[in-house]
Write a structure and sequence with these properties.
This protein is α/β, with parallel strands linked by helices and about 525 residues long. It is built from 16 helices and 15 strands.
């Protein structure tokens, strides 16, 4: 009986040992099989898994890494090496379809440190070992991403500083060609650039949210502080031009804010063109001041107001403005302009930017007919700005001083204009920095020598630097003239006093031409 009990116990023990051994064997075999299966996965699958993990790591890498480590610890499998962190400023993109580096460059250019698509494509290629096309499921590294918004500060600049500038449209300024033109101008001796923030058609070239702003999808200058920073890196004085009251967008899309026709009771037209907002309308004025203040926060050094006036042509008797609706008011157009500038200057100057004004060249003659129409009283305007830029294009002085072809007499009209402006603005403290003609319209003598004649005449008659205007941004003649200008500073360049104030906050008070190709209206 004891022997039989002993055999039974022995058999049970043997069965138990066998069961334990079987469990241990199959568990180890399963782990071994699992590890072998992973290591034998096809390289493409491993790459896809790695790419997916890398892309996901940008969004929630910390939680995934932690979960992976916990799972490895529980299963007894050694933890896989942590994914390598991406270089600073680099993000990963998992392609959902075949994707080119050019597409990625265009998508991320605004938030990147790069200025052109071409240079960004090259950078993306370098970051991906020369690869610029990515198949579905592949990961592309996108370098150069910057924290947004970019912060750029206005640079203190003496208003008397001698400026040598060219003008760029907004579309040109934001293009690769425009950037190349800027670099060329800098290399030639230029030290400033004027570019459009808002032109006379009312289009704003930078992102700016306002009920009166025209709605567009793609802005020529998509990141204004970044663009200004680039110009500053070339040691250029940055001037943002803003066309004020000639505004096609407002005239056509916000009719109640346009100049009104007394006879037709609808928006007034200048020679058949619906282009003028009401200069005296406070809502229009507020809109323009808001835009200027926004631009000032983006690091520009100077705000330049153009079209600071009332319409000068068309049926003036039929044009009605907001300031005329009060029959008891005796206010005149020049007072409207002066009051607006007083308000704008008061709000802008504490922000550290200079304020400059474009005015008609003929305003130096102080003719009553010009003053009544435009409202540009140069003496009053000079009290509310730092710089005045008379547009003294020789070709625009029709019938003046007995010249049949004024465009071919640059020395005379530049000299007489600057003499008159200096006399009219004496004692105001305003700096005179003229716009000069850099286009061929109505002159047979346009050439590098034509540029030299204007610059020299301006310098000899109180001109403090110069701005060159060409609506098509063709500056081949000025570029040819610049070597001579820079080699002969006594003849062409203005030397300001050594001790001058910078464009820091200041006190508010300080001690008609035809439209055609290349024409520039104030």
């Amino acid at each position: 009986m004891a022997s039989k009990r002993f055999r039974t116990i022995s058999t049970a023990a043997a069965v138990a040992v066998a069961v334990i051994f079987a469990i241990f064997f199959f568990t180890r075999h399963s782990e071994l099989f699992s590890q072998t299966h992973v290591s034998a996965a096809p390289p493409a699958a491993q790459s896809a898994q790695s790419n997916g993990a890398q892309n996901s790591a940008i969004q929630n890498g910390a939680s995934q890494n932690g979960a992976s480590q916990n799972n490895s610890a529980q299963s007894g499998i050694p933890a896989a090496p942590a994914a390598q962190p991406l270089p600073p400023g680099t993000i990963a993109f998992e392609a959902k379809a075949v994707t080119s580096a050019q597409f990625l460059a265009r998508q991320h250019l605004t938030e990147s440190q790069y200025m052109t698509v071409a240079e960004y494509v090259e950078a993306i290629g370098k970051a991906n070992n020369g690869k610029t096309t990515f198949k579905k499921g592949e990961t592309a590294l996108i370098p150069g991403i910057e924290p947004q918004p970019v912060v750029e500060k206005t640079r203190p600049y003496a208003k008397e500083t001698e400026i040598r500038a060219i003008y760029l449209t907004g579309t040109s300024a934001g293009s690769a060609k425009g950037l190349q033109l800027v670099r060329h101008w800098h290399e030639a001796g230029g030290n400033a650039v004027v570019f459009d923030i808002k032109d006379s058609d009312g289009t704003i070239n930078v992102p700016f949210s306002h009920p009166l702003a025209r709605k567009i999808k793609n802005f020529p200058i998509s990141n204004l502080p970044k663009y200004v920073r680039y110009l500053h890196s070339l040691d250029l004085h940055v001037i943002a031009r803003q066309a004020l009251f000639r505004d096609d967008n407002i005239a056509k899309n916000h009719g109640t804010l346009a100049v009104q026709s007394r006879s037709l009771h609808q928006p007034w037209r200048e020679n058949g063109k619906l282009v003028w907002s009401d200069t005296s309308n406070k809502e229009v004025q507020d809109y323009n001041i808001a835009l200027a203040k926004y631009v000032a926060t983006s690091g520009v050094d100077e705000i330049q107001f153009d079209y600071v006036r009332f319409p000068a042509e068309g049926n003036q008797a039929d044009a009605q403005f907001a300031f005329q609706k009060d029959p008891k008011s005796k206010m005149q157009r020049d007072e409207v302009i002066a009051n607006f500038l007083d308000r704008a200057y008061t709000e802008l100057h504490p922000m550290g930017v200079l304020l400059s004004l474009d005015v008609f060249g003929v305003m130096a003659w102080q003719r009553n007919v010009d003053l009544r129409h435009t409202g540009q009283d140069v003496v009053k305007m000079a009290k509310h700005c730092d710089v005045m830029s008379p547009m003294i294009y020789p070709s625009h002085f029709f019938g003046m001083d007995g010249y049949a072809h004024p465009g071919d007499a640059p020395e005379h009209f530049i000299s007489i204009s600057m003499e008159r402006f200096a006399k009219v603005t004496a004692g105001t403290g305003v700096v005179l920095r003229p716009w000069l003609q850099a286009f061929r319209w109505r002159t047979k003598t346009y050439s590098p020598e034509y540029i030299l004649a204007q610059v020299g005449a301006s310098k000899q008659h109180s001109g403090d630097g110069f701005l060159l205007w060409n609506a098509a941004n063709d500056y081949s003649k000025p570029f040819a003239a610049m070597p001579i200008i820079m080699k002969n500073p006594k003849q062409y360049l203005y030397t300001p006093p050594t001790a001058v104030a910078q464009n820091a906050p200041a006190q508010n008070s300080k001690p008609v031409e035809a439209a055609a190709g290349g024409v520039h209206h104030p």
